[in-house]
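Person: Show me a sequence?

Helper:
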Amino acid sequence: MDLGFDTVGNATLIAYDSGPVLVTDPWLGGDLYFGSWQMSHEIPEEQSQAVDAAPFVWVSHGHPDHLHGPSLERLRGKTILLPDHRGSRIAEALDEEGHRPRVLVDRSWTRLSDRIRVWTFSDSMQDAGLLVELDGSTLIVNLNDLSNTGWMPAVRKVARDYPTVLVMAASGFGDIRWMNFWDTDGNAIPSYAQLRVEAGVKIGPENAALTDAVCGTHFVPFSSMHQYQREDTLWANKYVTGLDDYTNGYDSNTSVPLPPYIRYEVGGDMTELLPKEILAPPMPPSSFGDDWSETLTPAEAKEVTDYFERIETLGSHLDFVTVRVGGREHGVKYQAGDIGVSFEVPRGSLLTTVRYRIWDDLFASQFMRTTWHGLSVDEGLAAFLAVGRYADQADVVTASQLEEYMSHYRDRAGRLATVRHRVEQELVGHGQGEGAVRSALYRLGRSVYRETIKR
């Protein structure tokens, strides 16, 4: 290929300029999330060779379907481009392991070849996106797992100057929003994905809306291609999004959907790649070092409680955190009260999690059972997820550290962008109220906001 790109695997983009130049988020094979995840489709041999030949690798964030250790080991010696994440955990770890990390300046262009340059942006949730320009005429907007944290106006401002803009983003019914939630009476709480699957929700309109919002001309399904293979997570496969679901119901006057796996040549043809589907056999938890009956030793239990006691910021939202392992409970109490969360998880994966500070991985595995006390699922995730991630990825564990951390990202985004995002979130919250979408206040605010982000 002269100039263009391929999409393969889960979130892997291969950009070419007279040969392979850049690979993003390479998960090239193997198990993830304590053996729960497997790839949905093989990477074709031609693209596999291109991955090996590219001099640059970009890694968006620390989840293992994006930062995959064995895949990076295969690509050792290449320059690993990283977003400027506060705390620099990934950059420092890769440097210690003998890799060649290079942190890119946030929201600034970096040239990789004569006709390819990139522009990366990160957010407070320790995620990031990447804009890839091909010869000044075509822009790839790689949003991978990003949620809307206020970056959209900045991306839109760049994208609107290109005649061709291909948007790539995670989407689907929502299994990656996590599942396996329970109430205190032992009743399963239907997950976001379950509710959407059972309601017959079409994903296409959501992807069309996102693409149009960032001035896209094409949408490519991305960063969502996986399956569950552990015997204790096979149930989750019913909520995985099929390849045809991503564009089902897609409706736009300004953009069109493309297949997930493609070869796209600038000024040439788009060819659909047809990789072989992976039929993963069920695997017992013991294959990955887990036995649900195993208990913690006193020293191991202290590791777990120390992990949570260290995160003082959790005490601003929760009264307690309890972890049940092999039928025995361990935990911390931040203050008197009944608001909290209980986790039930096997010993092996739990110890790996607290030792490497990767609690997100347990949520994504889907085998951990989570019970919310005095909180809805949304309230619980809001209380636990963000501060837990700040602690794990950026070592932010006190109130003062959290304020400094958030202030840094507000300054990076700019005061106007921060206000824009706050207005948007207020409008969304108001719009979700009964009858609010029909109110004059809502319609006026929505119109003002939409005109503002176009500037």
In short: The domain at 3-283 is CATH 3.60.15.10 (Metallo-beta-lactamase; Chain A). The CA atoms of residues 181 and 187 lie 9 Å apart. The chain has a mean pLDDT of 92.
